[in-house]
Amino acid sequence: MSPLSVLNRDPSLGPFSQKAMEGHPCITAEELTLAYGERTAFQNVSITIPRGAITAIVGPSGSGKTSFLMCINRLTDLLVDCRVSGRLFMEEENILSKEIDVLQLRRQVGMIFQKPNPFPFSIRKNLEFPLKEHGVKKPEAINRRMHQALTDVGLW
Fold first, then answer.
1. Residue 84 pLDDT more than 90?
2. Number of folded domains in the chain?
3. Rounded to two decimals, what is the model's pTM?
4. Which of 67, 94, 102, 140 has minimal CB crowding within 10 Å?
5. If you average pLDDT over every residue of the chain, what do you get?
6. Is residue 32 in some structural domain?
């Protein structure tokens, strides 16, 4: 198993002021371990990520970088035979708690994968879905936003 490393950038070296870092940490992992069946992706990861910090998660392929990120928005819940142990907090809330509203958590913590993972829908439905989830219901507003997004990335 390859080591997973998480590096926090010193905010005094860049545009983030110490004031943005004050208060409670944004994300804290304590002895976080994730396993897929008998295979451990990573174990006993502990880190505090301050608000406003630029943080890099580095390591070779298969070291658990994506798996760590998937824990933060609970995508690991969707995987058969996946076990997460330890403690994981966003602000001061235990996001591994059974009482957490996972949909609300995922609205705050997005995930962008290295390779596209569209739902098994049409392109249109893949673009409509997040808009509707975030309250955009009027067809003309949906069409306008989809057109703009596709134009912005050169696909219209």
1. yes
2. 1
3. 0.67
4. 140
5. 84
6. yes
Give long-range contacts, CB 8 A cutoff, 24+ apart: 129-138: 133/107, 134/107
Rounded to whole angstroms, the Cα distance separating 77 from 64 reads: 16
Predicted pLDDT of residue 16 = 39
Sheet harboring 39-49: ordered strands across?
39-49, 27-36, 82-90, 93-94
Q: Whats the size of the chain, residue-wise?
A: 156
CATH of the domain at 67: 3.40.50.300
Q: Is residue 138 part of a domain?
A: no
Share of the chain above pLDDT 90, in %: 51
State which residues form the domain around 21. Answer: 5-99
Tell me if 155 is assigned to some domain.
no
Instruction: Identify whether 17 is part of a domain.
Output: yes
Nearest to 88 by CA among 49, 41, 118: 49
